[in-house]
Write a structure and sequence with these properties.
The complex is a heterodimer. By secondary structure, chain A is an all-alpha fold. Helix content of chain A is 19%, strand content 0%. Chain B has one domain. The chains are: A mainly alpha, B mainly alpha.
């Protein structure tokens, strides 16, 4: 299985944003990049089944506009 | 615990633990050596197996690999989904 992790890219444990300088050096324009996922906290199975994921970081309901939960 | 559940509760429990197995399977596809994720998988696959066996013993098999007919082939004797059955 090819490792999807980009060598040399500065990884942030939370996978969230940060200064973009390393982006300029390592990332080619017009390409899409998915940050590496880490197994940290998960939802309880009952909530996960209802929401559709055990991973809070993937719990992104489409609300028709903008960000944030209902 | 699964032995105290009624049929609907047991089926919902099976849905929950099975969903956890499916989701962690996808994660493990790209993280094959993640120890925490492997432990999580082991935990929920055990829960699923025992729940499926308990359901098969009480209400009949949901999947062919839990069919345990003995002297009567219960597989096709259960109510079908459009007859109000569960599968």
């Amino acid at each position: 299985m090819r490792n999807y992790r980009m060598p040399g890219v500065m990884e942030k444990p939370c996978g969230c944003g940060g200064d973009s300088s390393y982006m300029d050096r390592e990332f080619v324009p017009a390409m899409a990049y998915v940050p590496w996922q880490y197994f940290t906290t998960v939802y309880e199975p009952d909530k996960a089944l209802e929401i559709g994921t055990i991973f809070p970081e993937l719990d992104k309901p489409f609300l028709g506009r903008g960000m944030g939960r209902r | 615990m699964v032995n105290q559940m009624n049929q609907a509760q047991l089926l919902h429990w099976i849905d929950m633990v099975s969903f956890a197995v499916v989701d962690i399977t996808e994660y493990l596809d790209t993280h094959p050596q993640d120890e925490e994720a492997l432990k999580y998988f082991d935990h929920y696959i055990d829960l699923r197996r025992s729940a499926m066996r308990a359901y098969a013993d009480k209400y009949g098999p949901l999947t062919i690999d839990t069919a345990n007919p003995g002297n009567y082939w219960t597989w096709s004797a259960q109510p079908l989904p459009w007859e109000g059955g569960n599968c």
